[in-house]
Specification:
Blueprint lengths: L7 H9 L6 H4 L7 E2 L5 E5 L4 H6 L6 H12 L8 E4 L13 H18 L3 E5 H9 L5 H4 L4 E3 L2 E6 L2 H6 L4 H27 L12 H4 L29
Parallel strand pairs: 2-3, 2-4, 4-6
Antiparallel strand pairs: 1-3, 5-6
The chain binds uracil.
C-alpha cells in the first residue's frame, strides 16, 4: 500500500517546529516554500539566504527577481510553480549546506514532493541536483538535460545566483530555461490531446524523456570539457517515493 500523502500544511507545521540541527538556532524563521500546491513544476533551490530568512519566502532577493525572469522564458509564472529549497533554514553566512544538514532536512522536501506530485522538478545548482538525482555528476555537465528520478522528469539548471556573480553563466541559464519550455509545451499539448481524445500530440512516454530531450542547444555557452552524459543513463534508484 502506498504511504498516504501528508497535507502541505501539516508538513509546514513540522518544518516550523523543527530543531533537528543547529541551523534552527540561527534562523529568523523557517522557509517552507511557496506557490501552487498542486504545481506541475517544482523548483528546488539550495537554502534560504538573508532576505528569505527575514521574509519567510524562497527566492525573494536579487536571485528571486532573476528567477522570475527565467521562469517567464520557459513560459511559467511564479504563481504556477511551487518553489522550495533543500534546506529550510539559512546557514551562517550562507555557507554551503553540510551533508548532515541535508540528511536531516530533506525528508521535508521528499514529503513536499510526494504531496505536490509535480510532473517536472527543476533543480537549481549542485546541491538540489545531486540530492534529487542521487548523482555525483555536477551541474556543469547535467544542466539543460532532461533526466528522470522515479516518475519525475528532472531538469537541472545552474543556480540563478551563480549568474549574478559570474555573468558568463547567464547565457547558459537563459538557454536552459528556453529548452525547458519545450517539454513543458509538449506535455501541455499531450494533456490537451488526451482531454479531447485526439491523438495529435503524442506524449513523450516513460523512457523516452531522455531521448526526446537530448541536449540540443541546451547549455550553449557552458564551460564543458567532457561530453555530456547520456540523459537518464546515470540515474540510480528512484528514491523520492
Ligand atoms: N537561493 C536559494 O537557493 N534559495 C533561496 O530561497 C534563495 C536563494
Amino acid at each position: 500500500m502506498p504511504k498516504p500523502h501528508i497535507p502541505l500544511e501539516e508538513i509546514r507545521a513540522q518544518v516550523e517546529g523543527c530543531r533537528r540541527c543547529p541551523l534552527a538556532d540561527g534562523r529568523t524563521q523557517t522557509v517552507f516554500g511557496v506557490g501552487n500546491p498542486s504545481a506541475r513544476v517544482l523548483i528546488v533551490g539550495e537554502a534560504p539566504g538573508k532576505n528569505e530568512d527575514l521574509q519567510g519566502e524562497p527566492f525573494v532577493g536579487a536571485a528571486g527577481k532573476y528567477l522570475n525572469e527565467l521562469l517567464a522564458i520557459a513560459g511559467l509564472r511564479r504563481e504556477d510553480v511551487f518553489i522550495a529549497n533543500v534546506l529550510k533554514c539559512r546557514s551562517p553566512g550562507n555557507r554551503d549546506p553540510r551533508p548532515e544538514e541535508i540528511e536531516l532536512c530533506t525528508p521535508y522536501l521528499r514529503e513536499q514532493t510526494r504531496t505536490i506530485d509535480p510532473e517536472f522538478i527543476v533543480t537549481l545548482g549542485n546541491f538540489s541536483t545531486k540530492f534529487i538525482l542521487k548523482t555525483e555528476i555536477g551541474i556543469t555537465r547535467l544542466h539543460g538535460t532532461l533526466q528522470r528520478a522515479g516518475r519525475f522528469k528532472v531538469f537541472p539548471i545552474f543556480h540563478p545566483a551563480a549568474a549574478l556573480y559570474d555573468g558568463s553563466k547567464r547565457e547558459a541559464l537563459e538557454n536552459d530555461f528556453a529548452t525547458l519550455g519545450q517539454p513543458l509545451r509538449e506535455s501541455d499539448a499531450a494533456a490537451a490531446s488526451a482531454q479531447t481524445g485526439g491523438a495529435a500530440a503524442a506524449p513523450a512516454g516513460p523512457g523516452t524523456v531522455g531521448a526526446s530531450a537530448t541536449p540540443a542547444g541546451a547549455g550553449a555557452g557552458a564551460a564543458q570539457t567532457e561530453p555530456r552524459p547520456d540523459p537518464a543513463s546515470h540515474v540510480e534508484q528512484p528514491h523520492l517515493l
